[in-house]
Amino acid sequence: MKILCIGRNYAKHIEELKNERPTEPVVFMKPDSAILLKQHPFVIPEFSNDIHHEIEIIVKINKVGKYIDTKFAHKYYDEISVGIDFTARDLQNELKAKGLPWEKAKAFDGSAVIGEFLPKTQFNSLENITFELINNNKVVQKGNSSEMLFKIDEIISFVSQYFTLKIGDIIFTGSPEGVAAVKPDDVLEGFLEGNKLFSIQIK
């Protein structure tokens, strides 16, 4: 399986990082080795002093698709969750400054937290669902899918032009504002419409 990620999909997050607003989805990938194993802590890697949390709504692809029309994209997933795209911000800034790819800053081992999946039928509208990240009992990120520049079905249609989607693939749909560095002993909890879908300890 592969992990497809969308960057710069929330206006306020674009502003906080002083990035340019995109005219189409910004796509990058993580390998399956990026998935943080269940019940394992996230260990801050030696190569970074500035690992940021980025909570995102994620979807799991349930059938093979290529060149998917937006109006049919809803048929290619039936479960959603929240996850974390851990980012080595110091390393990413260095790479961006040199015009180099982001993979070392985004796709390292353990950089993708995958929460427990819920059936999408549990929600009235996927275009109006709230999610949040709590760090040590304090809300640090909060977003709503209505704030996405590119909606879930639009993202699926767009990425399927370039990559054949396969069963089990995961799509990260972008992070709202509030990203910040993590430190040892932090406990990160991810919620989707009040449902706690992951809890991660930082070491």
Short description:
The chain contains four helices and 14 strands. It has 203 residues and is α+β, with helices and mostly antiparallel strands. 39% of the residues are buried.
Structure commentary:
The chain is built from 4 helices and 14 strands. By secondary structure, it is α+β, with helices and mostly antiparallel strands. The strands form 3 sheets. Strands 1, 2, 4, 5, 7, 8 and 11 form a 7-stranded mixed sheet that branches. A hairpin with a 2-residue loop joins strand 9 (130-135) and strand 10. It is globular. The relative contact order is 0.28.
Name the features.
203 residues; alpha+beta; 4 helices
Task: Walk me through the topology.
Elements: E1 3-7, H1 11-16, E2 26-30, E3 51-53, E4 55-61, E5 77-85, E6 87-88, H2 89-97, H3 103-106, E7 112-114, E8 118-119, E9 130-135, E10 138-144, H4 152-159, E11 170-172, E12 180-181, E13 187-192, E14 195-201
Parallel strand pairs: 1-11
Antiparallel strand pairs: 1-2, 3-6, 3-12, 4-5, 4-11, 5-7, 5-8, 9-10, 9-13, 13-14
